[in-house]
Specification:
single chain; alpha/beta; four-stranded mixed β-sheet; 5 helices
């Protein structure tokens, strides 16, 4: 199953200019089976997700979930999947992990702007994953992430 796991919508992230409905349609048109909205510090309520699913015209089998991108004080942005409420900005990574022990936490775009995280950083136990490919990374940044 292929899902778009890191996407922002115009409704809830200032860095996006595409509506949730259009984003859903575009992800479906690419042949993926679902999308996860990961707007900045916003967790979509189930009712809004149902409305987007209906208004976008995708089949019921197309999955739409809500996670969130959270700005931490120590590692920058992380994707949080499975928290039951919006996580405010400025927490430490360990605070997010402690508060939501069952959530999946993925380090978002650690290679952006030429950053080169250490192996120790990439292997932090608080992370469940590290984002490797991001459409906003350069080819060299994505290549480095894939290599590491």
């Amino acid at each position: 199953m292929l899902l778009e796991m890191h996407s922002h919508t115009a409704e809830h992230s200032s860095c996006s200019h595409v509506s949730a409905e259009k984003l859903t349609q575009a992800v479906y048109a690419k042949g993926l089976q679902g999308v996860v909205f990961t707007d900045h510090h916003y967790l979509w309520p189930a009712e809004e997700i149902r409305e987007i699913s209906q208004s976008s015209g995708v089949p019921d089998s197309f999955l739409i979930f809500s996670g969130q991108e959270v700005q931490t004080r120590d590692v920058g942005d992380v994707l949080v999947f499975g928290a039951d409420q919006t996580v405010p900005p400025g927490w430490l990574l360990e605070e997010v992990r402690t508060r939501y022990p069952e959530a999946a936490i993925v380090w978002a775009h650690p290679y952006r702007r030429g950053n080169s995280p250490s192996s120790e950083s990439l292997l932090r136990r608080a992370f469940d994953g590290v984002e490797i490919l991001n459409s906003n990374h350069s080819v060299s940044e994505n290549s480095r992430a894939l290599k590491d």
